[in-house]
C-alpha cells in the first residue's frame, strides 16, 4: 500500500510480495490461551503479542461487563497473528459489510458489466442513515461516484442504489469465490427492521475481516486493479472515531503519508454495535486489523467505554507500526 496520489479520484497502490490472500481460504491459526479477562461469549480463542497487553485488558474489561468481543491484528506482510481474541466469533457489524459490496462493484467495473451509467435515486433506496446523497439536489449519479460516497461516508442511499444495481446474490457469490465463509452482507440499509427483515445488515468475525483487509493491501482480492479501486474508495473514509481515533490523522484528509502513517479504515456503527477493520502502514511495519463489539447500549457510559477500549487497542496498533521491523 503505497502513498496515494493527491487527486481524490486516484487509487492507492497495493503492497506486493506475499504468497497468500483472500483468493485462498483464510488460514486457520493456532492460538494460545489468553488472560481470563479476554474470555467472551462463544468458544474462547485468544492470544496476544506482549505489545497488546493494554488492548487485551481493555477488551477483557468490556467482556466482563457483558459485551461480546472479537479482535484480530496480523502483520500485513507475513500474516503473523499479533492479537487474536475470539477471532472466529461471528457478530453483527452494522454497515461494515459494505466492503463486500465495494469489492463486487469494483470487479464489475473492471470487467465491463458496470459502466459509467448514472443510477437514479429511487424511493426504495431511501434511509435516514449515514451519508450525504439524501441532502444533495442531484438525483442521479455515476456508479464510481456512488462507490466513493459509500467508501467515504457509508452513505445509506448510495449503498442501497449500488446493491440494487450489483445484486446481493452477486455480492454473496463473490465472497464465496474469495473464500470468505462467515462475513456476509445480508440486507440493504433500513431505518427499521421488521419481523420479515434480516436482523442485521451484515455480520462478520474479526479474523476474517483482518485477512480480507490484508488481501486488499496486497492486491490479492480478485486482482490488483480491483483491490486498488476498493482501497481508493475506503481511503476517503471520514470515520476515524474508533480504533483509528488513536492514530492522530486528519479524519477528512488522510490519503497521503502523514508522519510516516497511512491508514485505510472501514467502520460499522449501530445501537449496541461498534466495529472497525483497517490497514495501518507505518515507518516500521504494516498491520491489518479488525475488532467487533456488541454490547448493552442502555447508557452513554457503556458506549463511551467501548470507544475508549477500541482507542486503547488503536494506540498499541500505532506503536507496533512505528517500531523497527520485528520479523
Automatic annotation (TrEMBL):
Region of interest called Disordered, as start-end residue ranges on this chain: 1-48
PANTHER family registered for this protein in UniProt: BETA-LACTAMASE, BETA-LACTAMASE-TYPE TRANSPEPTIDASE FOLD CONTAINING PROTEIN
UniProt lineage: Bacteria, Bacillati, Actinomycetota, Actinomycetes, Micrococcales
MF (Gene Ontology): hydrolase activity
One Pfam family it belongs to: Beta-lactamase2
Domain Beta-lactamase class A catalytic: residue ranges: 72-293
Signal peptide range: none
Gene3D superfamilies: DD-peptidase/beta-lactamase superfamily (3.40.710.10)
This protein's name: Serine hydrolase
InterPro entries xref list: Beta-lactam/transpept-like, Beta-lactam_cat, Beta-lactam_class-A
UniProt entry keywords in alphabetical sequence: Hydrolase
Top-rank taxon: Bacteria
